[in-house]
Amino acid sequence: MHAWLCTNPTGVEALAWTELPDPAPKAGEVLVEIRAASLNFPDLLIVQNKYQIKPPLPFVPGSEFAGVVQAVGDGVTHLQVGQNVACLSGTGGFATHTIAPAARCIPLPDGFGHVDAAAFIMTYATSYHALLDRGQLQAGETVLVLGAAGGVGTAAIQIAKAKGARVIAAASTDEKCDVCLKLGADAVINYSVEDLRDAAKSLTDGRGPDVIYDPVGGALAEPAFRSIAWRGRYLVVGFASGPIPSLPLNLPLLKGASVVGVFWGEFAKREPQANASMMGTLLQWYAQGKIRPAIDRTMPMSQLPAAFAHMGARAVIGKLVLVN
Q1: Which residues pair with 16 in a beta bridge?
Q2: CATH number at residue 302
Q3: Is 174 within a domain?
Q4: What was the pLDDT predicted at 240?
């Protein structure tokens, strides 16, 4: 097998396409032949030693992938050789093969392709957990999605619309805003040329959005929060822009608003039954055509450094998927 090996987490340039011995699964594990792996923002952070999870060296990055089970270890009963699966295991995806915990592999129903499957779990689980569990979004409410053309943002648009909410999508270019409208957003804000707070207020007749979905952080956080409605919920999803913002705490006081942390990975560990139920709902929605990953492009696995550069330039709309 071959894999992009990280021996020193100093950045993408330190990764090397390396031939490694063919692995064999232990008890509770499966060997997966990887057909597709998506690129997520944590994949960049982890090779820069900036992510909260720091795997022992050396490691193969790539948190999310889909492929075909090649072998199963002792005790694995819900998967079998030849079965198509999707998996979010945190590492191992940027390779031709990987060993994955069987418990983290989801059997794919017929018609669920590897490219879509590789771009599904992290973004849709994060956005569903954020909007419907942590944010308690209700039909008829308005949600403002920041970074709406990214992976979690495009998923958030679709999930909010499936719930019956009104969606205002905020993105940094007209092209990205157009994609958001095609995905179902009711209105858009190009925050590169529009004042985010004023636009959000105008689009809600001065009331403000009920829920704000923020995977961006940085300079957008405070103006977004200043636009929030009474009893609004501000969802802290991530910090794709880099800086972690500081909010004046008088703002949630004056608005009767909540600042709500979203950490889907920890939720999945602590509440596995609730997470499994959520994933079942998402798979049903996919089969019903309510949600579908927005794929920016596919690239050969051998072009991982170029894929990272494309993501680093903030040029990805939806998800970028590497294929073997």
Answers
A1: 5
A2: 3.90.180.10
A3: yes
A4: 83
